[in-house]
Amino acid sequence: MIAALREAIEPSRVTAAAPLATFTTLRVGGPAAALVRAEDAADLCAIARVTETLDLPWLVIGKGSNLLIADTGWPGVAVVLGRGFRGVDVDDTRVLAGAAEPMPALAVKVARQGLGGLAFGVAIPGTVGGAVRMNAGAHGGEIRDVLDWADVVRMGAGAESERWDGQRLGFSYRHSALPGDAIVVRAQLRLERADAGRIADDMAEMRQWRRDNQPINEPSCGSVFRNPPGDSAGRLIEAAGLKGFGVGGAQVSLRHGNFITVGGGARAADVYEIIRTARHRVREAFGVDLQTEVVLAGFDLQDVPAEVTT
């Protein structure tokens, strides 16, 4: 596998047995059999050929802010989109952004140019690509509100490039219709003219809200569960008596029930056990099946919805 990858793309961008914990905000999890940094669509094509030929599983890692890697690691290829997939171009109110561009940085850049509609992005600790895939949102805004289209590479279809507009993406709450083999490589947003000072004030309020209500200074994966219709996952978890509940080096945050934080010596298995316990307790107490928002990779899965696994 490593030899084939190094033959297909620049060898210095392929790492064997690469630790993945540092690529996630939880800072736990094992290594990938191979880690590859892709810089353009040609790299993705090359990776697709190798993974298809050798029948290897693959995984794309953005900022790793909603990702939990198993302690045993990832048995195939982990792909990181490099600086070739970053960049922001503004044409009047249209914004073209690379998939690896961090959402907070993009929100700040467009706000300074007097473009409104993306202020909520300052509260999303992920990339543009991840935001498109999961219809990320915060403070009443979602990516579907501002998306024109996204270009994707279909890894399972000969790495063909396709353009998906908002209708085809079929956005719903924290979900898009993108198939599992699609990697977002760039997206065009449609924004609106607004007062830069007012946008800056709005973003400052959002940042303050996060500081007041979320454990942003502790390692976590952000919101663990999607909010069920008409309710809050955090409220249900706290009502089930799980606020502060811990396993090993991980615990349900004392600040917000829908966050799991980790400390020294924590393992991915600790986080996973809390996820399973929370789902079980909430189901027993309230008859609600919490759906995970965090993506679980490399696990021998039990009691977790398949649509959020890799």
Architecture overview:
- Strand 9 and strand 10 form a beta hairpin.
- The protein folds into three domains: 2-83, Uridine Diphospho-n-acetylenolpyruvylglucosamine Reductase, domain 2 (2-Layer Sandwich); 86-212, Uridine Diphospho-n-acetylenolpyruvylglucosamine Reductase, domain 3 (2-Layer Sandwich), CATH 3.30.465; 215-308, UDP-N-acetylenolpyruvoylglucosamine reductase, C-terminal domain (Uridine Diphospho-n-acetylenolpyruvylglucosamine Reductase, domain 1, Alpha-Beta Complex).
- The two termini are 20 Å apart.
- The longest helix is centred in the C-terminal third of the chain and has 19 residues, at 268-286.
- With 310 residues, the protein is an alpha+beta fold.
- The strands form six sheets. Strands 6-7-13-11-12 form a five-stranded antiparallel sheet. The protein has a four-stranded mixed sheet with strand order 1-2-5-3, with helices on one face.
- It has helices spanning 2-8, 41-53, 103-112, 128-134, 166-169, 196-213, 233-239, 268-286, and strands at residues 14-19, 31-38, 58-61, 67-69, 74-81, 88-91, 94-98, 115-116, 137-138, 141-142, 147-154, 160-165, 182-190, 192-193, 246-247, 250-252, 260-262, 295-297.
- It is built from eight helices and 18 strands.
- 44% of the residues are buried.
- Mean pLDDT is 94; it is low at 302-310.
